[in-house]
Amino acid sequence: MAGVFDIELHDGDAANQDESDDDVIDNREEEYNHAATVSAILESDNLERVQLSEQNVNPGQEKAGPQDFELCKILGEGGYGKVFQVRKVTGKDKGSIFAMKVLRKASIIRNQKDTAHTKAERNILEAVKHPFIVNLMYAFQTGGKLYLILEYLCGGELFTYLDREGIFLEDTACFYLSEIILALQHLHNQGIIYRDLKPENILLDAEGHVKLTDFGLCKEHIQEGTVTHTFCGTIEYMAPEILTRSGHGKAVDWWSLGALMFDMLTGMPPFTGDDRRKTIEKILRGKLSLPQYLTPDARDLIRKLLKRQVVQRLGSGPEDAEQIKNHNFFKHINWQDVIARKLDPPFKPSLKSADDTSQFDEQFTATVPVDSPVESTLSESANMIFQGFTYVAPSVLEEMYAQPKVVNARSPRRGLLNNTGFGAAASLHGFSSPRTMDVHLRPSLDLQQQHRQHMMGPNTIEDTEMVDLGQLSNRL
């Protein structure tokens, strides 16, 4: 069973503190009035007194809270909260459909890692704006809960389409890989490593274009030449340098891209075993076997992305994604057309309306949506941990947020739509997601279902087990 791992290694004590006087304020004693008191200042006639209110504090800024959203459907549920489909009932974007992720503060602050990941995800979503990355529209909080309002991606997750087809044709894989590459390149340019690329974390919008989601395992502030040692990701897509804890940088995302490409074209990740330990052994030492039906360009790209030696891996140099974009596999791709979303998606979701939930599991969507009350409220000091969480997207302040375009094209596999798994809600919000497997389409599915289970929140594998896995990888 695959899992999401996260262990931060510390390299010892910090360097000696800077003892310079650069931060010392040099004040002139004669200019400071020792006799002045706060009371005397407040009683002065020279002060203008203004009553503070919502009207004169940050005037013109769009305010948002739970009361501004109508619950429509439950899209998923995890250990820390729920994911709802909601409709905005106030403001200039009234009537727009969003996905609302609700997290219980009391559950998050129990673990320092979970707190850090939650804050990092919110910060990254605010900072990163890209055609192939999910948009954060609002973030706000109450005494006991955190709320992230994201664009509603009704096309579902790429895993669902891959599961139905079994494998993709190379032209289909090329389309998705090209959009994913541009998303990863943008993250890398911002000093961010994604670290959890897999079909479950790739959503499709209403037109069928890619949107990366779930930024809980991202690492910020990674520049060229710097490395981090966090043991995290989903086993089948984790780069060897993460498993060996030898320090990793942005090149881990290109290994994951190679594993994803292999999965798209063969129906399985490149290295899988009967359990986690055997999977790790194969990632570190196993032979890469490529089917003969793949074209020479596809085989060459996969080999170059799955180089265990980082310096030999395509994309590991300062050119980053440009090395991959220039590979012969993408010789027919016009990258300007890709970023402009001019390429025709191979799969276009069959949707009835902008609030269509057919890509989500009926066990959730058929349930009455209720945002359950908080059992306890955090102390003021605990709430300070989430200071600065509130956010309103600039697009909301500038103009009405555009409704998702609905494509009415009929899918030849439409009959299968109602049988999809929890997919999109899970990957959009980092919750665990059961898969719906078809034994006739993808090989070794019982084994695959064990390997690729995405575990988050309370289901995260215990630190002791993760340490054992790390010790194993160091011995190999």
From TrEMBL:
Pfam families cross-referenced by the UniProt entry: Pkinase, Pkinase_C
Instruction: Please report the stretch or stretches of sequence annotated as the Protein kinase domain.
Output: 69-330
Q: Does the record bear Cytoplasm in its keywords?
A: no
Query: Which InterPro entries does this one have?
Result: AGC-kinase_C, Kinase-like_dom_sf, Pkinase_C, Prot_kinase_dom, Protein_kinase_ATP_BS, Ribosomal_S6_kinase, Ser/Thr_kinase_AS
- Keyword set, alphabetical order: ATP-binding, Kinase, Nucleotide-binding, Phosphoprotein, Serine/threonine-protein kinase, Transferase
The answer to whether keyword Glycosyltransferase applies is: no
Question: Which parts of the sequence bind ATP?
Answer: L75, G76, E77, G78, G79, Y80, G81, K82, V83, K101
Family classification: Belongs to the protein kinase superfamily. AGC Ser/Thr protein kinase family. S6 kinase subfamily.
| Protein name per its UniProtKB record | Ribosomal protein S6 kinase
What organism does the UniProt record list as the source? Atta cephalotes
- Quote the gene name from the UniProt entry: 105622978
